[in-house]
Amino acid sequence: GVGEALVCNNMGASREAAVNKLCTARLLALLSSGVRGLRNSGSAAQNMMHVACGRLDAYFEDGFGGPWDVAAGKVIVEEAGGVCRMVDGGDFTLLAGKGQMLCGNAAIVADIARVLRGLSA
Questions:
Q1: Strands 99-104 and 37-40, how do they pair?
Q2: Helices (H), the chain
Q3: Is 106 helix (H, G, I), strand (E, B) or coil?
Q4: β-strand 6-9 against 58-64: which pairing, if any?
């Protein structure tokens, strides 16, 4: 679960107060839940590749630029045995504009979603 997970997040380019508050609340919730480690990196595709090959246990982002940021990564994560969900743990939906992603193995994704669920926008 969360206690064994090295998790990566990207806060994106928005600096709106509400977005910043939600992003930092999510990171604090993970820290309070005993997450093993947090990283921040700016490339959704690269972060998803790190999940697929085992360098990261999970990656999440709410507000990636567009479907081109995650479409190929979704296929690669799933082919490696991982799952892709929305940040609240719901079924992943590829949107035409900005979207959200939570990926990793099924158990860790479910536990991270549990922690983040109460903090969704």
A1: unpaired
A2: 17-32, 44-52, 71-79, 106-117
A3: helix
A4: parallel
Task: Please give the structure tokens belonging to residue 53.
Answer: 């090959």
29 half-sphere exposure, CB direction, 13 A CA radius: 16
**CA–CA gap between residue 92 and residue 86 (Å, rounded):** 5
Contact 87, 60 (CB under 8 A): yes
* Residue 49 CB coordination number (10 Å): 18
Residue-wise pLDDT tens digits, 17-76: 998 999 999 999 999 999 999 999 989 999 999 999 999 999 999 999 899 999 999 999
Q: Which secondary structure element, helix H or strand E, spans residue 39, and what is its range?
A: strand 37-40
